[in-house]
Please model this.
Amino acid sequence: QGTAPLEDRAKSHLHTNCSFCHRPGGTGLGNADYRFATPFAAMGVCDATPQSGDLGVEGARVITPGDPARSVLSLRVHALDSKRMPPLGSSVVDEQGVALIDSFITSLQGCP
Model:
């Protein structure tokens, strides 16, 4: 638990673990931009259609405000199979990181 605002902590985690690929000109699919300096409203993830499928969750979005179970971002960071993110350099789920992302998604009441 940190003392910075929840959004800042979640964005720090996404920047560190996701933005190498998910940024303009990066190798990640879709239009997500997980760099810390990108305002959340400009990240292209809130209520956005996932570019690599819905992982079997009808109506899933990259981030579904208030609902980690319908958020592909959450589903992927929870996974250890071929659907996991990040895809390289991890063989265990980062429980603290997952809890942070899920807390952030749960806190969202809508998209900016």
Observations:
- The two ends are 25 Å apart (CA to CA).
- Residues 6-18 form the longest helix (13 residues).
- Residues 6-107 form one domain.
- The mean pLDDT is 95.
